[in-house]
Amino acid sequence: MKIAICASEGAPYCKSGGLGDVMEALPAALSRIEGNEVVLFLPYYYKVKHNAAYITEKVAEFRVSLGWRQQYCAVMRLTNRADRVQVYFLDNEYYFGARAGAIYGDIDDGERFAFFSRGCLDAMLALGFTPDIIQCNDWQTALIPVYLKAVYYDKLPKTRCMYTIHNIEYQGWANASFFDDMLGLPWEYRPRLDMNNSVNVMKGAIETADLVTTVSETYARELMYPYYAHGLDRVLAGNAWKLAGITNGIDTNTFNPETSKSLPAHFNSETFVEGKAKCKAALQEEVGLPVKPDVPLMVMVTRLAGHKGLDLLCYIARRLMWESDAQLLILGTGEAQYENFFKDLARQFPEQVSAQITFNLGLADRIYAGGDIYLMPSKSEPCGLSQMNAMRYGTVPVVHATGGLKDTVPPCDANGEGGLGFTFQSYNADDFYAAIKRALNLYENNRPAFRALQKKEMETDFSWDVPAGRYMELFRNMLSW
Ligand code: GLC
């Protein structure tokens, strides 16, 4: 099968969050399946263009129509990738190459990613690559199914398109004038993109894609409710027949406690007691906490954003520190109110709390390895990857049972049996507190059971093999229509 994957980020080239991780591992997993040819389209951002490690050659150039504009686009083929995925970067100096800052957040993001979306389709034609399937992701590439149906239908008549939602909070809103001025679409497509007299490109994708997926089964069901859908619940309910959830995996080569270069000691599910103890001691030292092997170390690696459930943690943090002989370590950056809260907390409890307000992938890895308990109380979570990273490293998760957290962390009882972690059902600080207490109790009062739980987590398969198979199943379904 010929599969084209289009996304606004993909590790290791460019990544701002979980989407970038998925766009590293999913194409690779699909390319390992016999008979597949996988190509990945990404923007040629400043940081990619000026990174000497990525060797490219120009293989096509053309102009992309955006309303009355004709914008130059070159297709740069990456020549030194080790696996079977063919990566193409779309180059335009004005939209991507000349902007050295963050990859999103410019005033003309709508125009930049309209260019990228249409450019991907033009690139396929220019390269003579006729995909069976196009898989595209989030608002940045939401115009691809729209253009495919409205403008490129006769050039790519057999190509089917899957649209995947990783984060429904960002939908790609624009003024109503964007439709005529920028998109150049036939007028009959206007209602599909229109929402409250504005343009919403994610709505356009949901209405026009052949299939819509999201990144866990529970989240696919949750999206039927206004609480989760950020205004798109009725649009999604109207398209529920073509909505499916596929729970992400993680890249088990990148996240591997046996080989990770960031770790001071290596371990697997047989040797983790000793290995994790070394990692824990080194970690406590690194972040300025007293080195105490038997004090439970609770950790969190997260963007400091509201929906990650930090309000719950703020509410209980002091009580937790007073009442328990435990340590808490947080790594992340984000909203000032949370950064300040955790810095204050660390000042108040220097023996117990460390706040690492920074972005550091190596330290993140050492935290997954050195922690005992991983906290993830997200208010909503489409999938979430770090709970899986934590379990792969034998760090026991405490999570809010929502979205992908519910699908990847089946609940265990107070003895650590029957599941993979500790969960709470309703979004409430006391329930979170009780779940943390269950984890701490097990650690303190029944260490063998805690170890057994860690071992079970480490032996669980979180690789992309199963989800990649599910993607293939849905791709085949689309092709049979
Ligand atoms: C987004 C979601 C996260 C998901 C990731 C990859 O970042 O917020 O839950 O794991 O995308 O799909």
Fold and architecture overview:
By secondary structure, the chain is of the alpha/beta class. The protein has helices spanning 18-31, 46-49, 93-97, 109-127, 143-150, 177-183, 190-193, 201-208, 217-222, 226-229, 233-238, 272-286, 310-323, 336-348, 361-370, 386-392, 403-408, 429-445, 447-458, 465-479, and strands spanning 2-6, 37-43, 56-66, 69-78, 86-91, 133-137, 160-165, 173-174, 194-195, 198-200, 211-214, 243-245, 297-301, 327-331, 353-356, 373-376, 396-400, 422-424. The chain has a 9-stranded mixed sheet with strand order 3-4-5-2-1-6-7-11-12, with helices on both faces. It has a 6-stranded parallel sheet with strand order 15-14-13-16-17-18, with helices on both faces. The chain has a 3-stranded antiparallel sheet with strand order 8-10-9. Helix 4 (109-127) packs across helix 5, helix 13 packs across helix 18 and helix 18 packs across helix 19. It is globular. The protein starts with a strand and ends with a helix. The chain binds alpha-D-glucopyranose. Residues 17-19, 22, 166-167, 215, 248, 381-385, 404 line the site of alpha-D-glucopyranose.
**How helical, in percent, are the residues?**
40-55%
Biggest pleated sheet: 9 strands, mixed
Averaged pLDDT: 97
> How is the quaternary structure best described?
single chain
Structural class: alpha/beta
Features:
globular, 18 strands, nine-stranded mixed β-sheet, six-stranded parallel β-sheet, alpha/beta, binds alpha-D-glucopyranose, single chain, 19% strand, 481 residues, 40% helix
